[in-house]
Amino acid sequence: MASYAHLVARERCPGCSAEIAGLTMDLIGFQWGYCPSRQPWNDLFYRVGDAIRWRLDDKGRIPPWVYFVGALQGGNVGDPSARDLLVRALDLNGYGLTCAACGMSDIAISIRGGHIVGLEPGLADCDIAVVGPDGQMHPRPDWDHHPMPEIPKVRSRTLATGEGLVIAGKRAP
Ligand SMILES: [Zn+2]
Predict the structure, then answer these.
(1) 153: CA distance to ligand 1 center in Å?
(2) What is the pTM of this model?
(3) Distance (Å, rounded) from C-alpha 103 to C-alpha 79?
(4) Rounded mean pLDDT of 26-44?
């Protein structure tokens, strides 16, 4: 059931700076923002620096924490009002990345101001942590299994930033 977004990046381990080995096509999976499919979806791969994308409903709003009805089971995972956070970095099987060089696990994708900035050490006990204005990590274990109801069929394929700015050239499948 789970859907993923993917970052294409040759990133270094936040623990030891070795290149993360064993990634398929440099793909790092995660679950935040619009996640189009269970499988990697080339048209929507992220690069470092990209704004997190959200799918709009037919009224132009971003429904948080929903699946969109459809064969691919895409969904908006999370809530765009959270703009500074860490989300667990995953391999293509949905397991957390581990650095082969130093053994660090619990590696996270760092999102600041709604943009992907790179990898950081993550948290052991949950997949998402919100970063407060003070830089403090606020673990959100309650978000690991947040309810994701399906919403009735949405026709719009438009994607937008968390502020609702439409992203040209990127559409939901
Ligand atoms: Zn390492």
Answers:
(1) 44
(2) 0.96
(3) 31
(4) 96
